[in-house]
Amino acid sequence: MASGPLQGVRVLDLSRVIAGPFCTMQLADLGAEIIKIEHPERGDDSRGMKPPEAGGESHFFLAFNRSKKSVALDMATKDGAEIIRALAARSDVLVQNFRPGVMERLGFDYAALATLNPGLVYCAISAYGQTGPQASRPGFDPVLQAESGMMAITGEEGGDPLRHPLAIVDTFTALYAASAILAALYSRKDTGKGQLIDLALMDCSLAVLGNVAEYYLASGENPPRMGNAHPAAIPVGLFKTRTGPFYMACGTDRLFHQLCREVLGRPEMAEDPRFARNTARAKNREALFNFLDDLFLTDTCEHWLGKLEAAGLPAGPVRSVSEALESSEARERGMVAHVKHPTAGDLRIVGSPYRLSATPVETPTAPPLLGQHTEDILHDLLGYDKTRIAELRDAKVIRGA
Q1: Rg value, the chain, Cα
Q2: pTM for the complete prediction?
Q3: Which helix or strand (DSSP H or E) is residue 207 part of?
Q4: How far is CA 382 from its chain centroid?
Q5: Hey, what long-range contacts does 132-135 have (CB within 8 A, 24 or more apart)?
């Protein structure tokens, strides 16, 4: 059977919470072996982020740690540090998201580990980067949303800035991290050498501003806060009906003209100089939206979505999280998977979005219990015998499940 494209790649995961674990979970989906190092008492910080929970395991931890092996290890001890170095010497990739300086103090920085393993791809994720005046500052996703300008453009016009409810900066940083790691592994095929990847949440949050950033860079003006609308594409937004809201995005001239003809029954609006072109619609936004708001309130959400779907226009219902996960789209694409968990039993988790025809993603396995694979890794990979493992366990250097 075909296997994931990263079969044979081993990742030493020293990260916790979201940015690092989400990155390594993607690598696990693609077939890499992930050895997750956790504190022997508390584990990944996200293990304590509950309720809700399943089988005693935090929903937060379950979300970002499928298909990994957990080694519960105190890497600040002499024996723990020896194990980390031995694992790094046998790994292709290392991912960590400690504050700059911590890995240097422990002796696990890139320069130190590259002497043991010149082919190691070392990904260091931090709030503000490994260099610069802010490097030593702690940083968490919502703070970076505030500092990067994301909050300033989120929320209703005239209202307070709002943070995105998802850890959106961590999420984009994880995606950048996975891409950078794959690029470094590809480069290593020719050079035989690994490299240091320095990823900053702040850098990534600025990078994903995209056209919002260019709005300012091109005009010298801050983009406006528009709530559910769009500053440059009209009409895009949330519209209420007699039975509930839907979201529509018909912001190009072609889509708007089609909307007028096939959905609104007002073909003359497509020729109206106030609305015919997007630049004109932007100037006459209030008049257009007042008309649309009044019209959509005359019938049901189902009626309008039916007409929009028949016309092939982009629009959809405003679903709850449960409605989205239980939808036919999620079911038919396999986006909710079932795994067998040691304490939670039959556990439902979000599946991988990757679809590769020749090297499909791995069938997911349950997020591990704390220390579930400690003894297996020490024995099978490092060659520790039962006596030595028992000594480490008694000294509280390691912990099993």
Answers
A1: 25
A2: 0.93
A3: helix 201-207
A4: 32
A5: 134/202, 135/100
- Strand, helix or coil for residue 362: coil
**Strand order through the sheet with 121-126:** 196-200, 121-126, 93-96, 10-13, 33-38, 69-73, 398-399
- Residue 314: which of 210, 230, 243, 213 has the closest Cα? 230
- Residue recorded with tokens 């190009």: 252
Spatial distance between the Cα atoms of 87 and 188, rounded to a whole number of angstroms: 19
Phi, psi of 315 (to 5 degrees): -160, 155
CB-based contact 400:376 (threshold 8 Å): no
Nearest to 138 by CA among 178, 102, 163: 102
pLDDT values of the chain reduced to their tens digit, one per residue, 401 residues: 458 999 999 999 999 999 999 999 999 999 999 999 999 999 999 999 999 999 999 999 999 999 999 999 999 999 999 999 999 999 999 999 999 999 999 999 999 999 999 999 999 999 999 998 899 899 999 999 999 999 999 999 889 999 999 999 999 999 999 999 999 999 999 999 999 999 999 999 999 999 999 999 999 999 989 899 888 899 999 999 999 999 999 999 999 999 999 999 999 999 999 999 999 999 999 999 999 999 999 999 999 999 999 999 999 999 999 999 999 999 999 999 999 999 999 999 999 999 999 999 999 999 999 999 999 999 999 999 999 999 999 999 999 87
Q: Could you tell me which of 235, 213, 217 has the C-alpha nearest to residue 314?
A: 235
Q: Please name the amino acid found at residue 380.
A: D
Structure tokens at 217: 């860079």
Q: Rounded to an integer, what is the distance from CA 86 to the centroid of its chain?
A: 30
Q: Which residues are tagged catalytic?
A: 170
Residue 21 phi, psi dihedral angles, 5° rounding: -60, -35
